[in-house]
Amino acid sequence: MATWRNKRRVLALGAPLLLLLTCRAAWAQGQSSCLDCHGSLDPPLQVTAEQFAKDIHAQKGLTCADCHGGDPAKADMDAMSKKAGFRGKPDRKQIPEFCGRCHSDAAFMRRYNPSLRTDQLAQYKTSVHGQRLAHGDTKVAVCIDCHGVHGLRPASDTRSKVNPLNIAQTCSRCHSDAEYMKAYGIPTDQFSKYSASVHHDAMTDRGDLSAPTCTTCHGNHGAAPPGVGSVKNVCSTCHVFQSQMFDKSTHKAAFDKAGLPGCVVCHSNHGVKHPSDGMLSTGPQFVCSRCHQPGDRCDRATAAIFGDLTRLDGAIKNADGVLSVAESSGMEVSEARLAQDQARDSLTKARVTIHSFRKELVDQDVQAGLTVAAKDLQAGNEALRERNYRRVGLGISVIAILIVLLGLRAYIRIIEQNPPTSAGTAS
Amino acid sequence: MSLVARARDWFDERFHWAELVAPLEKKTVPVHKLSPWYFLGGITLFLFGIQVCTGILLLLYYRPGANEAFESVQYIMTRVQFGWLVRSIHSWAANLMILTAFAHMFSVVFLRAYRKPRELTWVSGMVLLFLAMGFGFSGYLLPWNTLAFFATKVGTEITGQVPVVGHSLMVFLRGGEDVTGATLTRFFGFHVAVLPGITTLLVLVHLALVQYFGMSVPPGVEERWKASPGESRQMKFFPNFFLRELMAWYIALGVLGALAAILPWDLGVKADPFAPAPAGIRPEWYFMFMFQTLKMIPAKVWFVDGEVVGILVFGAAAVIWLLLPFFDPLSRGRGRRFILGAGIFALAYMLAMTVYGYLAK
Fold first, then answer.
1. Which residues of A touch B265 (CB under 8 A)?
2. H or E stretch at A336
3. What domains are defined for chain B?
4. Domain spans of chain A, in order of start
5. Where are the beta strands (DSSP E) in A157-294?
6. What is the separation of C-alpha B360 from the centre of its chain, rounded to a whole number of angstroms?
7. Does A276 touch chain B (CB under 8 A)?
8. Which residue, B81, B169, B200, B278, has fewest beta-carbon neighbours within 10 Å?
9. What mean pLDDT do residues A379-384 have?
């Protein structure tokens, strides 16, 4: 027992001594004493030189001491003395202010990245995260939860946790954790819904980084759920024309009166699906029936609009089909193909105009599209007629050529069977 | 006296018509089982004539220039009466002409028709084939579509790899460092003025040489005829052979018309010099064997760039091939079999690499 106690005493004195000797030896070789020691420690105190080299701060020339204070030129624990200005690891509650010392200082930030905003801390304080933190809730997200620490990459880097491609995943680490979010009484299915949404498809499948992710609608540093009155404004940052049309519609006043949050009533929020004309039909996607009665004035208008859209869609597909056949027959129909884009644009415009819920406005776009599609269909049919004309011409030409060939053959036989004195086969 | 007879008399009185056509009437063509190969040269000539005629018609509407070329070809194909037919025939005839020229060349190799005294006939024919390929290369760019633009870019880049003069040659071809509208107008100039001028002159020389030396008889047939002169058969060139040749031309015309009507030549998409190169850029089929070979050569062969090695090897092969008749008398027996083997190898290599080039991704 005594032996064991002695061993522990030796270990208790020996281990720090060994660490000090290692640090001193490394310092003597002219390296940073912070990384020399922390590189050999176990997590969470471990920060390796390799890890820190990837950090944007290190790449901009900042050192450990710029955030944590202390004097990396000194070896041992002297580097971390109060006298050397050592601030150490901040409490979780202090982290926003800790990062904000530099990131809220416009003059300081201008030296490294003049285009970077410096209002993150001010915004954070207005966010649900910031307000809860101020009230002592340390479970909420602080800077390092989203951005990471000691291996922090700029948001433009696709490996960054705050790159648009990764933001939803980053937010979901807390917001999809039912156990972690239990105390807040908010849903935890946002990420699963978003993953099946049209916005997620645009971001991940098409690689469209301008497609919305969590922060696009909720804000990033000032993250908060949009209020009922501001949902339309959030959507309209991208869907401008739909919003303008909606403002012209009778639905605007009705929704305001009923306290309904605009766009999401029909399209939902996190799980917004690719809109289809079926939303106006009587099928499973039909959304109008949630409020309207079958057969009422609005229901009839919706059916008429759906009919118009279907008609234009069908006309475009029909013209496309004929043009494809003509094209595959080798006919030059690129002009009509190009014009088809105008018809498609009219269909898209009509689908936007639907948000006005005014049939006469939708009709204008549909008619414009139908006119173009009809012209293109005519061009396709003319190309097919021309193709048939060519084939008939070919047939006649082949017959003419065959007749000439037979005539020539016959003539050769005649002159070779009855050779004139100076012609015919000679040996 | 009929009008024709009076006209003939008029000419005869001034130009001694009978004396002029006398060689034609005396000209004969050997008749043996390999005689059909004699038609290939005539078919190639016929297709060249088609090229000249359709090319002149296209010139009436075609406008060279990066901003107008594509649209003018599109206009020809959609708005001009029978413009589609003229353009398609011009494109198809160009390809068929090169095909028949290659076939003609290999028939001459395998029948050993290049032998003394026809060395210069072979050399003039080979130069004509190179000129035909030049026609193809320059004409390919003229519609100014995406595929042609990037293929020309790659093609002229390869020219730039030629040692010493490569870069200057590339700049000369392109009219600058890059393929631009200047390249198009330059290629147009080559295609409609420089190459036709030289080709017409050389075709006349080639025909004059064929006329002067007459048709070559394959060595095997020649020996048999020497052994038993009774077997020797000749056909009068005019009208007997000429009428047969006319039949071959009619068949070629029918094939051309069918191809133009059933498979009109595609116009593609207008070239955008700022767009990234599309996948699957490839040259015309008759350059494919060289293109595929250059693709397969490693980046470095010993210490020399692979592409440079490829170009030098092809260049050397072309020179040796051009001078083939001059090697024939030097090599007897096994040596001649070696030339025959080289011909078979060249044909097999070109076919295999062309097929591989189209199949490889």
1. 330
2. helix A334-353
3. 35-214+235-270 (1.20.810.10)
4. 297-417
5. none
6. 26
7. no
8. B81
9. 96
The rounded distance, in Å, linking the Cα atoms of A334 and A341 is 11
Angle of helix A334-353 versus helix A297-328 axis, rounded to 10: 170
The two beta strands, B300-301 and B28-30, are: unpaired
Is A426–B234 a contact, with Cβ atoms under 8 angstroms apart?
yes
Average pLDDT for A270-289: 83
- Size of chain B, expressed as the number of residues it contains: 361
Chain segment A110-127, per-residue pLDDT in tens: 999 888 889 999 999 999
Distance CA(A86)–CA(B206), nearest Å, equals 95
CA dihedral A108, A110, A115, A120 (to 10 degrees): 10
Helix ranges (DSSP H) in chain B: 3-15, 17-26, 39-59, 69-78, 83-110, 119-141, 146-159, 166-174, 181-189, 195-213, 219-227, 242-262, 288-296, 306-322, 324-327, 334-359
Backbone phi, psi, residue B157, to 5°: -65, -40
Task: Tell me whether residues B254 and A409 touch, CB distance under 8 A.
Answer: no
Closest chain A residue by Cα to residue B26: A422
Concatenate the DSSP letters of all residues of B230-264 into one string: GG--EEEIIIIIHHHHHHHHHHHHHHHHHHHHHSP
Long-range contacts of A250-256, Cβ-Cβ distance < 8 Å, separation of 24 or more: A250/A357, A251/A357
Tokens of B271: 């070239």
Distance CA A242, CA A273 (A): 16
pLDDT per residue of chain B (361 residues) written in tens, 0 to 9 = 789 989 888 888 888 877 877 877 788 899 999 999 999 999 999 999 999 999 999 999 999 999 999 999 999 998 898 999 999 999 999 999 999 999 999 999 999 999 889 999 999 999 999 999 999 999 999 999 999 999 999 999 999 988 889 999 999 999 999 999 999 999 999 999 999 999 999 999 999 999 899 899 998 898 899 998 888 899 988 889 999 999 999 999 999 999 998 898 989 899 998 888 888 788 999 999 999 999 999 988 888 888 899 999 999 999 999 998 888 766 666 667 778 888 999 999 999 999 999 998 6
B151: closest CA among B281, B276, B279? B281
Contacts of B243 in chain A (CB under 8 A): 408, 411-412
Nearest to B243 by CA among A398, A408, A421, A420: A408
Supply A33's token pair: 């004493």
Domain A297-417 matching CATH 3.40.50.620: the answer reads no
What CA–CA distance (Å, rounded) separates B68 from B181? 10
* B234-236 β-sheet, strand order: A425-426, B234-236, B28-30
| CA–CA distances in Å: residue B175 to residues A339, B179, B192, B359 | 36, 8, 17, 34
B147/B280 Cα distance (integer angstroms): 9
B230 CB neighbours in chain A (<8 A) are 427
CA distance A165 to chain B (A): 25
Is pTM beyond 0.90? Reply is: no
pLDDT number for residue B17: 78
By the 8 A CB rule, do A330 and A383 touch? no
Whether the CB-CB separation of A346 and A365 falls below 8 Å is answered with yes
Tell me the two tokens of residue B64.
């060279």
Instruction: Kindly state the tokens that stand for A67.
Output: 């955030």
